[in-house]
Design the sequence.
């Protein structure tokens, strides 16, 4: 009889493990639905994000063109000022790419 009780206990343990596995599966499926919602929301907002990045780049570009032109005019009008000032201006604002990064 103790062997029968032991067999029933083992069977109950297997059923319990199966139930725990099913509960975990349901929990994971619910999280996958939330993950899908999150991914779809991010994908839906990509168009707005790209337009915002484009506008930010455009503003940086326009300001960099303006500052580069100002520095170029200043350097050509003030050739007699200190060498240190010209070196710093040349280093920071010598071309459009560097001005955009500055």
Sequence:
């Amino acid at each position: 009889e103790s062997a029968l009780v032991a067999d029933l206990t083992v069977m109950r343990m297997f059923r319990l493990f199966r139930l725990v596995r099913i509960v975990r599966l349901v929990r994971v499926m619910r999280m996958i639905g939330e993950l899908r919602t999150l991914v779809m929301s991010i994908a839906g907002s990509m168009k707005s994000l790209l337009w915002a990045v484009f506008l930010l780049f455009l503003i940086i570009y326009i300001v960099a063109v303006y500052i580069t032109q100002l520095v170029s005019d200043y350097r050509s009008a003030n050739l007699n000022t200190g060498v240190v000032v010209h070196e710093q201006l040349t280093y920071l604002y010598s071309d459009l790419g560097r001005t955009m990064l500055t």
About this structure: The mean pLDDT is 85.
